[in-house]
Amino acid sequence: MRDYCIRTATPDDLDSARAVMLDTVYRDFGTGYVPRWHGDIIDLRDAYLAPARHTLLVVADERDGAVVATAALDSRGPAHPPNPRHLAERYPSGETAQLRRVYVRPEHRRRGLARRLVGELLDFAAADGGYRAVYLHTDPAVPGAEAFWRSMGKVVWDERAERGRGDRTVHFEIPAIK
Q: Count H helices, E strands: the chain?
């Protein structure tokens, strides 16, 4: 069994973390880099390291130090548009810890890394003291994503159920703020 180290990202980790994220959006999402959706990936420092209430975690494989997984949290709720008004009102920026970029390289999956990362993010949100909810959205077409998030939280809106939207995003709340 491999040993892994979960830690808060440093500036030295950003290129490796970005590579994990970009590989994921190209391979798993099939969208490639889309600036309006993935702009934070390019500027990880300003998105997650600089703001006090944000964080970026990485998982390093202790055998070679390679970053094999990422997870981030920021204080931005879902924007309206493109999300429906009811989500933006339920999860306002500043009061909402949004989980983002929980990505694990395929060869390191099924080892509990994503669950451990989410636990660390939830601890970070609780320690902050200013968050009242934890929110995320996922693409259920990504293998394992929907089942994983359903095991962690509750669906608050499934876009597939709304006729005419054509979207496939599922929105979740994770019940963890203590």
A: 6, 7
> Residue 53: is it exposed, middle or buried by C-beta count within 10 angstroms (0-12/13-18/19+)?
middle
pTM confidence score: 0.94
d(CA 67, CA 64): 9
Question: Strand, coil or helix: what is 46?
Answer: helix
pLDDT, residue 172, reads 98
Number of CB atoms found within 10 A of residue 63's CB: 9
Residue 178 has pLDDT above 60, yes or no: no
For the four alpha carbons of 30, 34, 37 and 39, in that order, the dihedral sign comes to positive
Residue 73 has φ and ψ, to the nearest 5°, of -140, 135
Judged against a pLDDT cut of 80, whether residue 175 lies above it is answered with yes
CA trace torsion 120, 48, 69, 126 (10° rounding): 10
Closest by CA position to 102, among listed 64, 51, 153:
153
DSSP state of 49: I
